[in-house]
Write a structure and sequence with these properties.
4-stranded antiparallel β-sheet; alpha/beta; 6-stranded mixed β-sheet
């Protein structure tokens, strides 16, 4: 990174504030970026990171404060204005059009045209290939986006940002779904962009991965600016303390529990084409971990036990009795609950209110003669939301409006409402901050202490 005393900032956000109705999302927050630096922006879910980024990219406008770009006061009325100013963003979930090829996705809305408005396909493919090659990425620009891995989709999005001559690149949780090898490749490209003078804002809840990549780190907490430090002067423990206001030692308590009887046992479980000959036991009061790289079969095993993709061979026993689980309904009747890895697509119905998401598996408890008792439903949902400390404006708020961490808490609340005996958690802390992660770990420990069997 260039010496800040010798280089003019490329972007300054000074004393920025933003309110949404009764919620003060940001108050007096500042951020300074220099060309050729990787700058981490960290904080718990709800700390204000997303709001600050949306102001930077023109999605929202600040209520107070100012943006200075290349020394001049700037205002981005919409995302197109920010893009034209050289600001691009890559989000946690890739935003490519699956049925367009790579070249079309890179230049979508900006396709080169010749006389009469005719698209110059060969020119577009050639330029896409040049951009990908400059990143050291070997992909055929004519490949449809639906056939790309998450890591490859991110490379295409980076190429798209370069095609707009972006001077500032925002990367929001880019490593959450990548294998270690893919993370290494992404970091190689980030370092290459830094050497080329691009300023990179890197948002991640994986604090350990920041140490060797990032030049400086800015921390937000509850919508307020906590501080900016050179990465060489902080540790993971320092960053956590700045984020949550307390030490690491208090974040991950573990209750001591003596395991009881075997609640879940799988013997030689097999699902053709997915996994083969898997066996293990989970006892009451026990937390059993299943580890493996992306694609190793962890999720498939969990989904098989819960009846989403029933096993083709092997035995599942619940409390010593062989169980036939052919659907999630069968699993739930046996006292199983499953928190999926992808909360937005498989764990929640985003347009629905928090209350209806929480009560979905137990909706029959709130019906009388075919009528839904809305008041009773919302009262019960509120109790579970309070237990999980879901930060919300109201229990009727759409779940899509919550932060990622609070969405995960709603998923957990939904399945705890079923009063399960066996709880399957698939990547329960994916994409959530260290504070929410601590809450999830504490909940797991508490549930194990009550005698639940947790996988």
């Amino acid at each position: 990174m260039p010496n800040p005393t010798e280089v003019r900032p490329i972007l300054e956000m000074q004393h920025v504030s933003k309110r949404f109705d009764a919620t003060q999302a940001l108050e007096d927050v500042s951020l300074t970026l220099y060309p050729g630096e990787v700058h981490a922006l960290i904080g718990e879910n709800g700390a204000g990171k997303s709001t600050l980024i949306k102001i930077m990219t023109g999605v929202h406008q600040a209520d107070a404060g100012e943006i200075i770009l290349d020394g001049s006061r700037s205002h981005f009325a919409d995302p197109r204005a920010a893009q034209q100013a050289g600001i691009a963003a890559i989000y946690q979930e890739p935003s490519l059009f699956p049925d367009l090829d790579i070249a079309e996705n890179i230049f979508v809305g900006r396709q080169p045209a010749g006389l009469g408005g005719r698209l110059q396909w060969s020119q577009m493919v050639e330029e896409a290939n040049r951009l990908l090659t400059s990143l050291g990425v070997h992909l055929d620009p004519r490949t449809k986006a639906r056939f790309l891995s998450v890591a490859e989709q991110q490379m295409v999005e980076i190429a798209r940002a370069l095609s707009t001559n972006a001077k500032i690149l925002i990367m929001d949780e880019p490593t959450s779904s990548l294998t270690p090898a893919e993370v290494s490749e992404l970091f190689r490209i980030v370092r290459q962009l830094r050497q080329g003078g691009t300023a990179i804002v890197f948002i991640s809840h994986r604090l350990e991965e920041l140490l060797d990549l990032v030049d400086r780190v800015t921390v937000l907490r509850d919508g307020h600016y906590v501080g900016t430090r050179p990465m060489t002067e902080v540790t993971v423990e320092n960053m956590i303390e700045m984020m949550v206001g307390r030490t690491l030692a208090t974040l991950f308590p573990k209750q001591t529990v003596t395991p009881g009887e075997v609640m879940l046992e799988v013997e030689h479980l097999t699902c053709a084409g997915m996994f083969n000959d898997v066996s293990f036991q989970v006892r009451a009061g026990e937390i059993v971990g299943v580890a493996g790289l992306v694609g190793a079969g962890r999720t498939e095993v969990a989904q098989s036990i819960f009846g989403i993709t029933p096993a083709t061979a092997g035995v599942i026993k619940i409390e010593g009795r062989e169980a036939l689980i052919r659907s999630p309904r069968d699993a739930m009747a046996l006292g199983l609950a499953y928190v999926p890895e992808d909360r937005q697509h498989h764990g929640l119905i985003l347009p629905m209110p928090i209350a209806q998401n929480i009560t979905l598996p137990i909706i029959n408890r709130f019906t009388r003669r075919g009528w839904l008792l809305r008041g009773a439903e919302e009262q019960a949902a509120m109790a579970f939301a309070d237990q999980m400390e879901v930060k919300r404006a109201a229990i009727t708020q759409q779940v899509r409006q919550l932060s990622g961490g609070n969405q995960q808490k709603v998923v957990l609340a939904k399945w705890l409402a079923t009063n399960p005996r066996i709880l399957i958690l698939d990547e329960p802390t994916r994409g959530i901050d260290v504070g929410t992660k601590s809450a999830v770990h504490a909940l797991m420990s508490e549930l194990a202490g009550r005698g639940l069997a947790i996988l």
